[in-house]
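writing this on my phone so excuse typos. first protein, seq and then structure
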Amino acid sequence: MDFQPDAGLDVFREEVRAFLRENLPADLTGKPVGSVRSMRPDLMRWQKILNRKGWSAPYWAKQDGGTGWTVLQRLVFDEECVAAGAPTQDGFAHKLLGPVLNAFASDEQKAAHVPAILNGDRLWCQGFSEPGSGSDLASLRTRAERDGDFYVVNGQKIWTSYAHESDWIFLLVRTNTEVKKQAGISFLLVDMKTPGITVRPIRSIDDCHHLNETFFDNVRVPAANRVGAEGDGWAITKFLLNNEHASAADLPILRRYLIQLRKLATTQRMGRDPLIAQPGFAQRLARLEAEVSAVTMLVHRVAALEQDHSHAAHAMGSILKVRGTELQQRISEFLVEALGDYGAVAYPEPHDPCDGEPLPLQGVGRGIANEMFFRRASTIYGGTSEVQRGIIAKMLFQL
């Protein structure tokens, strides 16, 4: 890793700030973000603005239609978008599915899906977890049986984030039961409007609707929608999950939390003094800021290892997943504490309209408790911390 300052990074930061000042509509800024991504209309509108600039895929290589930015440039872009209050992008499409399409999809599949992702015309969800098949993903039971030019899919997925708002789903299915369980899995792209798909909401502890259970009843999927060969699903999944682990720390979210904490530190008071004047509060805030900086450095390290095709990249991605998600939990809990008694107020959920007289501190407190409750799951989704520690031990210490 090269820790020398990048002379061009300040110039790039100013370019991003200028773009945001000139192109980010005022009515899209500062809206509460519902746990994973912004509301569908805001996200799609913002994606089209980014696409006109050529910045619609910050995490992709230039030859794949992306910006080709360095890791540091991507971090600057994320940081400035968070500071400006911009909507999120569709992380499922850009950080998870996109790299899979670029690495494994046919030219026909890329032509069918990549332009729609870049322009925000098609939102995606992820169909991996099942009842009884979460961290042990290879035990999944959703079947896809070949029938001519189609697969007939039957089964159930659960915790399908934003399935109710998504146009397509990338789906893991079992296409062979006679081989080792990892070898019998395939990767399908499925239109959510296909007959036989039922989506039922799961209202989570944060009082928001972003999770769902999704049922497949004789769903006919063209065989042309299979990515890679039949049985390649597990290899593709390992590629995708390493991207998920590396992005699960979610630096933009951590940075947004710190912005909120700094605001509360100066606007909330204990007696006559602001919170930041309390030595205990100031010390905790400084420590959390240092830990976010440490996670930022780890993101750089994982990216450098991936660039060098190091075998340690997957293990380092798991380390990042553990440290980043634990930090999400601790900072979101501290945010609720910083609100004092107002941390217990049931504000309207982030995506609901605010009708009537606003509650006290609604402008700063809305969505904070929701985030804290949602982040209880951070150390579970994408592979539990226990599973990640097992990966780390196996790959780095040969245990």
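second protein below, same order as before
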Amino acid sequence: MRKLSLIFCLSAGLAVQGPVSVSAAELVPSGNRNATQPKIPGASARRTRGSSFNAKYNKIRNLLAKDRKLMGKIKKAATTFGIDPIHIVGALVGEHTYNVDAKDRLQSYYVKALAYLNQDLSFRYKGTSVERLVSQPAFAKCNKFKNSYSLWSCREGVWNASYRGKSKEGKRWPNQRMGRVFFQPFYAGQTFGLGQLNPLTALKVNDLVRSRVRREPKLSTRRAPEIYNTIMEPDSTLIYMAAVIRNSIDSYKSIAGFDISKNPGLTATLYNLGNVRVRAYALKSKNDRRKSAGKKAQPPQENYYGWLVNDKEADLRSIL
């Protein structure tokens, strides 16, 4: 974690400026790079007490297979962002196998999304709103960025470098991700809805979404209920999922030099881990060192979550 935080701080200034141009990207074929599944975190096991990973997989898999309307929405979102729908299916399966249980009916997500619109919600930590936080001088350098991904990536970088786990402005700040500290209602969870999205993730890709889907609103931290409704309402959730995946594919191709568009396990891994551009720069840096030492570049690796998606790819494609 400390290594990733350091990479985030060092690369934030580069990452927010956009991808680095490369002449050609190496295609990562479908399938897993690891013969056996990487270790599943204890937190996933704790969330599965009274059930099993296999039972949770079958529940989300069957929901997708039976609900043709939902599958149609998945395909439409994928087409909008020019990706294979297997990437969205894979992310959904990973989230609901290793994180939360899928609800029995899609309608339940619509009802829950509407409920959030009537809540008195705001993004804050112990009396400090996120608006007040990012108005501090340390964040001023981020104001030059107009694109939502660049702006919020910069702010996240400042948080990691200057606030996370440190005492500043008379307060001891938690040694946790910005998304966890400021972007969860009632401290009840970090991700929400069918796509298990974090509000900070939605803020980052808001401009990308609006460039493809004009009806989507400009999100603002001052309207927290609207953001929660956006990430919990299935129609908009799928659009944001597709945007997140599109960003992952583009970032790894242009920054790290790998085309992961044919490997749903890798896009699922990145959907699970987040901080995509930081990870792409970290992989690029690692492979630059390997090349300097006369070694072959290493492709990105799937984690336990993405490993399952690749292992089940044939089954998941059958329901498309």
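Confidence is low (pLDDT under 50) at residues 1-22. thats all i got for now
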